[in-house]
C-alpha cells in the first residue's frame, strides 16, 4: 500500500515539471540567457516555497504573498537579478539580504553559489529553512539578523543581492564586496529601480536598471 500522496509529492511533481519548463521558456523569451540561471529555475520546485493554497499559481509570472506581509518576487525578477549578479563569471560566495521564503536562495544555490542569507523575521526564516529542506537544498547558511550590517566575519563576498528595497545603499555591504564583486539591489521608496554596483579597481561603478516594486528594507530583528 502506498501511503497518502499529497499534491507536493506525485501529482504536483509531474505537473510542476511541465509548468516549470514553460516558465523557463518564457524567461528565455523575456531575454534571460545565462544557462546556469535557466537551469536552476528549471530545477527548483517553486511551488514548495509558497503556501499550498497558492501552489497552482507558483509558476505564473506574478509576485505572491509569503506571510508576515512579505512577498516572493515574480520569476522574471528573480531570474533577472540572479543573471545580473552571476553572468560572465563563477558564482562564488554570495550574500542575500531578505531570505523570505528561501526561493531566491534556492535559485542561487542551484546556480552554483555558496549562499549566505540574512532575514530579520524569525518565523519567516524558520519557514525558509523548512522550504529549502523540502526542496532538498540544505547548504544555504541562514542567519537571523538585520541585514544592514551584512556578515563582516564571512566577507568579502563575490556577490550581494538584496531582495527588499533600500532608500540608500548600506555602506557596510559595499565594504563587504570583494574587488571585482557585484551587488544588485532595488533602490527607492514609492518609485524603485534595480541598482547594479560593481567594485572595480577604479572605484564603485553604479548602473541604474529596470523599474521594480519590492517590500522595504526595515531595521532591527523581529
Ligand atoms: N528573496 C525572498 C524575497 C523576500 S521579500 C524570497 O525569495 O522569498 C524581502 C524580505 O526581506 C522579507 O522577508 C523581509 O522580512 C526581509 N527584510 C527586510 N528588511 C530586512 C533587513 N534589514 N534584514 C534582513 N531582511 C530584511
Automatic annotation (TrEMBL):
- PROSITE patterns attached to this UniProt entry: PCMT (PS01279)
Q: Catalyzes what?
A: [protein]-L-isoaspartate + S-adenosyl-L-methionine = [protein]-L-isoaspartate alpha-methyl ester + S-adenosyl-L-homocysteine
Q: Name one GO cellular component term.
A: cytoplasm
GO annotation terms (biological process): methylation; protein repair
Record-linked CDD domains: AdoMet_MTases (cd02440)
Instruction: Give GO terms: molecular function aspect only.
Output: protein-L-isoaspartate (D-aspartate) O-methyltransferase activity
Give the source's domain of life in one word. Answer: Bacteria
Key words of the record: Cytoplasm, Methyltransferase, S-adenosyl-L-methionine, Transferase
Enzymatic class: transferase
The protein's location, in the record's own words, is: Cytoplasm
Q: Where is the active site?
A: 73
Identify the InterPro entries for this entry. PCMT, SAM-dependent_MTases_sf
EC numbers: 2.1.1.77
NCBIfam families per UniProt: pimt (TIGR00080), PRK00312.1 (NF001453)
Stated role? Catalyzes the methyl esterification of L-isoaspartyl residues in peptides and proteins that result from spontaneous decomposition of normal L-aspartyl and L-asparaginyl residues. It plays a role in the repair and/or degradation of damaged proteins.
Family assignment? Belongs to the methyltransferase superfamily. L-isoaspartyl/D-aspartyl protein methyltransferase family.
What this protein is called in its record is Protein-L-isoaspartate O-methyltransferase
Species name for this entry? Crenobacter intestini
